[in-house]
């Protein structure tokens, strides 16, 4: 039994005649007949009955074809996998992201990406800004998603978003009656602010000074999700990246536009010497497309 005999048998079963099978294989009908006869001899099975110029599969032939077809399906799956590996490299994508992106936005992108490329394995790590840049510089990741301006050696970066911050208020706070919160409205309020590791903090301090906001001692944290958690418990009022608002409970925390604008930025960071990788390129494109859609929503905090 050899591959040529199996191919001839499968095509005869699929096409219904030896003549059609011969045409597809680019050979003659007598050659197909000889291959089938050799296969019958090697298997000890009568695969077809002959009636003049017509053939019909026997029960044994039909049973044997089911096994042959199962094997060919397996080979076709292997061929498809090989094409994916050629097109998408190793088939694995390593991501590292700041918490505000890892907790909500990146999962949205992964959902869209896997709908198109379900066989790609993905790892996502949530790390500090410094670690993101170090990992990208050392090629420990394929893509980093940062919220501070990249300055590490050996990386390429691009701005992912530029969004105005929103004011986070405990549900039931008197300021929730307003459609927009101005910096001056925060006088005598306890504030929950980004730490100085965040690029936004210096511009936020400047805005508050210009509005002569005499802050009660503040609470500081580098994480937007933590700011929202503290505001939800009534510990103060926060100014947050709108991407941190996606999964907030409106019965505990509400959001309003804030004036003047305090801009939050995000960046993609990749190893500079990385070879062109279609997986990376596809994910970056989907991240950009998803951000365009989500930024429209995030920039218009809902009034609950």
List the keywords:
transcription regulation; 13 strands; 5-stranded mixed β-sheet; 44% helix; D-Maltodextrin-Binding Protein, domain 2; alpha/beta; 6-stranded mixed β-sheet; 3 domains; 9 helices; 304 residues; Arc Repressor Mutant, subunit A; WH_DNA-bd_sf; LysR_subst-bd
What would you give as the CATH superfamily of the largest domain? Periplasmic binding protein-like II
Largest sheet: 6 strands, mixed
Secondary-structure element series: HHHEEHEHEHEEEEEHEHEEEH
Radius of gyration using CA atoms only: 32 Å
Strand order of the largest sheet: 8-12-7-11-9-10
> Number of DSSP helices?
9
* Helicity range: 40-55%
User: What is the second-level CATH architecture of the largest domain?
Assistant: 3-Layer(aba) Sandwich
Q: How many domains, as an integer?
A: 3
Mean pLDDT rating? 87
CATH structural class of the largest domain: Alpha Beta
**Low-pLDDT sequence parts:** none
Report the CATH topology name of the largest domain: D-Maltodextrin-Binding Protein, domain 2
Shape estimate: elongated
Strand element count: 13
Quaternary class: single chain
Derived structural class:
alpha/beta
Strand content: 15-25%
Distance between the termini: 73 Å
Description of the structure:
This protein is an alpha/beta fold. It has 3 domains: 3-88, Winged helix-like DNA-binding domain superfamily/Winged helix DNA-binding domain (Arc Repressor Mutant, subunit A, Orthogonal Bundle), CATH 1.10.10.10; 92-158 and 266-298, Periplasmic binding protein-like II (D-Maltodextrin-Binding Protein, domain 2); 163-264, D-Maltodextrin-Binding Protein, domain 2 (3-Layer(aba) Sandwich). The chain is 44% helix and 24% strand. The protein contains 9 helices and 13 strands. The protein has a 6-stranded mixed β-sheet with strand order 8-12-7-11-9-10, with helices on both faces. Strand 9 (190-194), helix 7 and strand 10 form a beta-alpha-beta unit. Helix 1 (3-15) crosses helix 2 (18-25), helix 2 packs across helix 3 (29-43) and helix 5 packs across helix 9. It starts with a helix and ends in a 6-residue tail after the last helix. InterPro entries: LysR_HTH_N (IPR000847), LysR_subst-bd (IPR005119), WH-like_DNA-bd_sf (IPR036388), WH_DNA-bd_sf (IPR036390). Belongs to the LysR transcriptional regulatory family. Residues 1-58 form the HTH lysR-type domain. GO terms for molecular function: DNA-binding transcription factor activity; sequence-specific DNA binding. This is LysR substrate-binding domain-containing protein.
